[in-house]
Amino acid sequence: MHRYKCWNAPMPTTGNLAGSSGIAGTKTLLQLATPTNRQLTVISWGYSIQTLPTTVGGGIIDLVSQNVADTVTAHIASGLQPLDPNLPASLLQLGTALSGYNASAQGAVTTSRAHDSNFVNSVAGTDELTYEYQFMPDERPIVAISSFLKIRATVMAGSSIICWVVWDE
User: Fold this and answer.
1) pLDDT score for 86
2) How many CB atoms lie within 10 A of CB 99?
3) C-alpha distance across the termini of the chain, in Å
4) 20 within 8 A of 158, measured Cβ to Cβ
5) Is the CB of residue 149 less than 8 Å from the CB of residue 167?
6) What are the backbone angles phi and psi of residue 56, rounded to the nearest 5°?
7) Average pLDDT per 10 consecutive residues for the chain, totaling 169 residues
8) Residue 22: which region, alpha, beta or left (left: phi > 0; alpha: psi -120 to 50)?
């Protein structure tokens, strides 16, 4: 097994991670596409909210696997970082309908599996602005071949969010 990590932004070179902002409705913040010959196992995931949602009632951020891709800004290979620098590059697929971040269009999903979900309140001081979850070994979600792992935010108008996921291939 090889372990990798990525965020919903390109790898920073001279600046910081940018994340996603101006979220309204349901938006995929990060999407990972498994190839036709390799599944992935989710180890952990999380997010940090830089700007509270302006929507009354807040929103939900969830981790799901689905059968249809969203249109995203494509990650490049250096965006899917091996945790051990001696490991080979990830085998996940790259492209605007594959692995990427900050979706501009949602796909027409017919099959979905929820792995974790967290409610975020819009009232300052009522919720943590950072969420991290590490799955126990026997509960780690497995994302099937030719599927998509996604971190999505719903009804988070005005929010700025950085999210990440760690997985094994």
Assistant:
1) 94
2) 26
3) 6
4) no
5) yes
6) -60, 130
7) 91 66 76 94 92 67 93 88 93 92 82 90 66 96 96 76 94
8) left
Q: Quick one: pLDDT at residue 155?
A: 64
Write out the two tokens for 104. Answer: 């501009």
Altogether, the residues listed in the chain come to a count of: 169
Which tokens sit at 117? Answer: 């979900």
Distances in Å between the alpha carbon of 83 and those of 20, 45, 75, 79? 23, 14, 17, 12
Q: Residue 40: which residues within 8 A CB-CB, separation 6 or more? A: 32, 34, 92, 142, 143, 149, 167, 168, 169
Instruction: List beta partners, residue 113.
Output: 65
Report how far residue 57's alpha carbon sits from residue 53's, in angstroms, rounded to the nearest whole number: 9
Greatest Cα-to-Cα distance within the chain, rounded to the nearest angstrom: 47
Give the whole-angstrom CA distance, residue 22 versus residue 30.
Answer: 15
Residue 23 is predicted with a pLDDT of 64
Instruction: Please name every residue paired with 114 in a beta bridge, in sequence order, or none if there are none.
Output: 64
